[in-house]
Amino acid sequence: MGIGLGGNRYGKSGIRLVRVVRHPDRHELADLTVDVALEGDFRAAHLAGDNAAVLPTDTMRGTVYAFAGEGPVGEPEAFGLRLAGHFVDTVPAVALARVRLRQRPWRRIPVGGQPHPHAFAAGDGERRTATVTRAGDRAWVVAGLAGLLVLKTTGSGFQGFLRDRYTTLEETGDRLLATELTAGWRYATLEVDWAKAHAETRRLLLEAFAAHDQSRSLQHTLYAMGEAVLRERAEVAEVRLSMPNRHHLLADLAPYGLDNPGEVFVATDRPYGLIEGTVTRDDAPPAGPAWE
Length: 292
Description:
Oligomer: single chain
């Protein structure tokens, strides 16, 4: 029986970075969690305990802070490209570097009707995300968001589905639809205005969710959202969406002698349906090794 080493990677995860830019009249705040993963020829470390090719993960952590110290972090995508390029260019054994970034939103606290120059409050659960991959001379960027709660109180139904002996779900032509959106969109180019492209893609996703008033299922809405982005944003090659169905069940008010015409709901967080899919262009350039 032959035994060999399969695919492997290593890196540093959960690197917490807060960077303050101190302008004379205001401060800017960037709050990121960074994960670094390297792939390449590390066979000797696994098979013989030879660490000569292994860059310590502590060095990866230090590199993130050093890069932040050299200048403002800027957009997550640009910071990730700098980091991924550094590891591929300076670590001989590395064939691929992947950097994941999640940005916490902070908003200025209003004081006297004006945003305070250096006091902030944390935003909601939404995070801006970016995954940057560098393999040799190639690099690609997947931007995105996570933890964005969206809900609409009408304009969605679920009917005509397959039934078997275990199916008890009732059909509905109108329901409350809620999900916690995770989205990633791969850019076909690196010539991108990262902040504008992210804001516009987010806007298109939300507008499509809201405007898709003939939704027959969450799958139906998922496709409409991805399609809206690809129609308007030429730099986006494909959109991947993960949308758990945050069920809201009509509360039974009959025991209290009350009707419930779609007004009172029980919000449940589990179990939940999980709908995932990718909407892509026919001519989208390949991402290389599986994009994440």
